[in-house]
Design goal:
Length: 628
C-alpha cells in the first residue's frame, strides 16, 4: 500500500512540475507580449478600430511654353456608403437614386452589402456632392476628388492625351510624364467601435496629399491654333481624309505644334468624332484606338520627293555630286529591266543638279543614288538617323520600314533615291530635315521642357535630351538651304512663297497602298527664314477629294498660311535679314547656277508614284522589314 502511494505521489509531482513549467512559460510569453511587443499589438488594436479613406492628390498641371494651362483639374466627389453606419437604409437608397439618377437595384445592392466601404459613384459634380452631404445621411460619405479637365477641348488632343477613371494617364504626354504629374494620395483615419460604427467624438487623423508637379512643354497654344485652323480648312473644304502638321524649332527640337485632324474632345475622349451607330463592342474600341492615333509618330508612309532632300545632302556630303554638275533628263531612266519615268513625261532635257532639284527630277536623283552606291547610301541613311527612332517623348513611335541592305539591287536603290519603296514617320522626316538645315546637327524632337514643384513653384528638373551630334558639315548644310530656297522661289514650291520672306522647302506626293487604288498623299516641308531657320513646318494632306490628288498644292497652301501668322509671332518680319546661322553664311541666290533657266511644271510629282512600268515594285516591296 505504501508503495502504491509513493508511486502515486511521484506521478502527481511530475504533473505538477509540468504544469508549473507551462505556467512559467505562459507568464514569460505574456510578459514578453505585454512589455516587449506592446506597441505592435496596440497598433494592431487601433487599426481594427480605424476606418481609412483616401484623399486624392491633385494631378500636376500641363502648361504651354507661355505658361497657359492646357491640362488642369476640376474638383469632383466620390460618394460611398459604410454599411455598419447606415441607420436608415431605405432613405439612403431613395435619396441616392434620386440625386445620382442611378438604377434602384444597383444602389440597393451596394447599400445592403456587408463590406467596409462601397463606392456608389465617382466623378460626381461638386454641387451634387454638396447636396448629398447636406442631407446628413448617416453612413454616406462624400469625399472630394479630382477629374482631369482640358480648357481647350480638342486642341492638340493626340499630343496631350487623357486620363482614365483612376486619373492616371492613358495616352500622349499624360502617360509619358506620369511619374511627374501624378501626386501622392493622402488619408483620412477615423475611429469606429466593434460594430464598425464611427465614433462621433473621436479625433480624426489626416495625412495630407501631395499634388503632382507642373510640366512645362514646348507646345504653343497660339501656334497650335494657327496650324489646326489651316488643317481643318483644307480637310473640310477639300474633303481630305486627314491632315497632319508639325511645327518645330530646327535648332533644339522643341515642337511648337503637332496637328492630327480630325482631333477629338479631350473632356469626352470615349465618344467618337464620327458616326458610330451599329458598331459592336470590339469595333467600337477599334474605332476609338484609330481616333486616338497620332499619325505623326504612329504611322509610316512613303515620303516621296521630300526624301530627295536626304539624297541631295548625302550626295553633296560624299562629294559625288556638285551644284553645277550636268544631267540629262529624257523623261525616264532605264534601270536593269525597269523603265522609271520622271513626272514630266517629255523630260527636263539638260540641267544642272541645282536645276534638277528645283524641278524635282527623278532621273537626276536616280543618277545621284547610283553614284553613291548601296553601301554609301545606307551609311548616310544611318548617319542621318533614319534607321532608328527619333526618341520623341510620346509613346508608340513607329520605326522606319526599310529594305535589308543585302536585298537592295539597282532598282531598289533607284526608287529609294527619290523616296519610294520604304516608309518613315512624318516625325522622322521633319526631324531629319531640321538636322540638315540647322547647320548639320541631329536634334531630338520633344515637348517636355521643365518640371516645377506645384506648391512652391521651384524648378525641380530641366529635361535633357543629350548632346547634339554632327551628322552633316556646315558647308553642305548651307548648300542645302540654298537649294531648298530656290525650290520655293523658282521651282515647284512657289505656292508657299510669302512676299518679303526667304523660305526654303520641298514638295512631294506619295501613293498609298495598294497602288491600284490611285490614292495619294500630298506634302510640303518648309523652313524659314532661310538665313537663320527658326521654324520648320511640315504639312501632309491625306487623300483630298479633288480632281488631281497627286500634287502638293494643298500642303503648300497650309504651310504658307501658317507661316503668314507664325513668322511675325516669332518676331520675324519681312525683309528681316539680321539673322545669321552661325553655321556658315548664307550666300543667297547670287550663285550663277540659280539664274539658269528652269523648266517648270505645276503638276510636279503628279505621276512620280506610278512611274515604274512592268508591274511596279511588288517584288521589291515584299522584302521590306521593320528595323525595330
Amino acid at each position: 500500500m505504501a508503495e502504491f502511494l509513493t508511486h502515486h505521489r511521484k506521478k502527481l509531482f511530475i504533473v505538477f512540475l509540468i504544469s508549473a513549467l507551462l505556467m512559467v512559460g505562459l507568464c514569460a510569453q505574456l510578459g514578453f507580449l505585454m512589455i516587449a511587443r506592446s506597441d505592435h499589438y496596440s497598433k494592431m488594436a487601433d487599426e481594427l478600430h480605424k476606418r481609412e479613406r483616401t484623399i486624392k492628390a491633385a494631378r500636376g498641371e500641363i502648361v504651354d511654353r507661355n505658361g497657359t494651362v492646357i491640362a488642369a483639374n476640376r474638383t469632383v466627389c466620390t460618394v460611398s456608403v459604410i454599411h455598419n453606419q447606415v441607420t436608415e437604409p431605405e432613405k439612403v437608397i431613395r435619396e441616392l437614386v434620386r440625386i445620382l439618377e442611378l438604377p434602384e437595384p444597383e444602389v440597393r445592392k451596394k447599400v445592403e452589402k456587408w463590406s467596409s466601404r462601397e463606392i456608389i459613384r465617382t466623378n460626381v459634380e461638386k454641387s451634387v456632392g454638396d447636396q448629398i452631404m447636406n442631407l446628413g445621411l448617416s453612413g454616406v460619405k462624400v469625399d472630394e476628388d479630382y477629374k482631369r479637365y482640358y480648357p481647350y477641348g480638342s486642341l492638340a488632343s493626340k499630343v496631350l492625351g487623357f486620363t482614365g477613371a483612376d486619373n492616371q494617364g492613358i495616352i500622349g504626354l499624360e502617360v509619358m510624364y506620369e511619374r511627374y504629374l501624378k501626386g501622392r494620395d493622402g488619408l483620412i483615419l477615423t475611429t469606429s467601435d466593434a460594430k464598425g460604427t464611427e465614433l462621433q467624438n473621436a479625433a480624426e487623423e489626416r495625412v495630407e496629399p501631395v499634388p503632382g508637379n507642373t510640366l512645362t512643354v514646348s507646345l504653343d497654344v497660339n501656334i497650335q491654333k494657327y496650324a489646326e485652323q489651316a488643317a481643318y480648312q483644307v480637310m473640310e473644304k477639300k474633303g481630305a481624309k486627314a491632315v497632319s502638321v508639325i511645327v518645330m524649332n530646327p535648332r533644339n527640337g522643341e515642337i511648337y505644334a503637332m496637328v492630327n485632324v480630325p482631333e477629338f474632345d479631350l473632356n469626352d475622349p470615349f465618344t467618337l468624332n464620327v458616326e458610330s451607330g451599329g458598331l459592336t463592342g470590339t469595333e467600337l474600341q477599334d474605332a476609338r484606338n484609330k481616333m486616338w492615333r497620332n499619325r505623326c509618330i504612329n504611322d509610316t508612309y512613303e515620303p516621296g520627293s521630300t526624301f530627295k532632300i536626304i539624297t541631295a545632302a548625302a550626295g553633296l556630303e560624299a562629294g559625288v555630286v556638285h551644284l553645277d554638275d550636268r544631267f540629262s533628263c529624257p523623261g525616264f531612266r532605264i534601270v536593269e529591266d525597269r523603265k522609271i519615268r520622271c513626272h514630266k513625261i517629255g523630260g527636263h532635257g539638260g540641267e544642272t543638279f541645282l536645276q534638277g532639284a528645283m524641278n524635282s527630277c527623278n532621273p537626276v536623283f536616280i543618277d545621284v543614288g547610283a553614284r553613291l552606291g548601296v553601301d554609301s547610301f545606307y551609311h548616310y541613311f544611318e548617319q542621318f538617323g533614319l534607321l532608328g527612332k527619333t526618341g520623341i517623348d510620346l509613346p508608340g513611335e513607329a520605326a522606319t520600314i526599310m529594305h535589308k541592305k543585302e536585298n537592295v539591287g539597282q532598282v531598289e536603290l533607284a526608287t529609294m533615291s527619290f523616296g519610294q519603296s520604304f516608309q518613315v514617320t512624318p516625325m522622322q522626316m521633319a526631324t531629319t530635315v531640321c538636322s540638315l538645315v540647322n547647320g548639320g546637327k541631329r536634334i531630338t524632337p520633344h515637348f517636355g521642357v521643365v518640371v516645377y514643384d506645384a506648391e512652391s513653384g521651384a524648378k525641380e528638373e530641366t529635361i535633357s535630351y543629350g548632346k547634339r551630334k554632327r551628322i552633316l558639315s556646315k558647308e553642305t548644310s548651307e548648300k542645302m538651304r540654298k537649294i531648298l530656297e530656290t525650290v520655293v522661289s523658282e521651282g515647284g514650291g512657289k505656292k508657299a512663297q510669302i512676299e518679303g520672306y526667304r523660305i526654303g522647302g520641298k514638295t512631294a506626293t506619295s501613293q498609298t497602298l495598294p497602288r491600284s487604288a490611285n490614292r495619294y498623299i500630298g506634302s510640303f516641308i518648309g523652313f524659314a527664314p532661310v538665313e537663320n531657320p527658326k521654324a520648320v513646318v511640315y504639312a501632309i494632306v491625306d487623300e483630298p477629294d479633288v480632281e488631281n490628288q497627286a500634287n502638293s498644292v494643298l500642303a503648300q497652301e497650309i504651310v504658307k498660311e501658317i507661316y503668314t501668322e507664325l513668322l511675325p509671332y516669332l518676331n520675324v518680319f519681312p525683309d528681316d535679314t539680321d539673322g545669321v546661322t552661325g553655321e556658315g553664311s548664307e550666300t543667297g541666290t547670287d550663285d550663277p547656277n540659280v539664274a539658269a533657266p528652269v523648266q517648270e511644271d505645276d503638276t510636279e510629282n503628279s505621276a512620280e508614284n506610278s512611274n515604274i512600268e512592268n508591274g511596279g515594285l511588288t517584288n521589291a516591296e515584299l522584302d521590306l522589314i521593320n528595323e525595330e
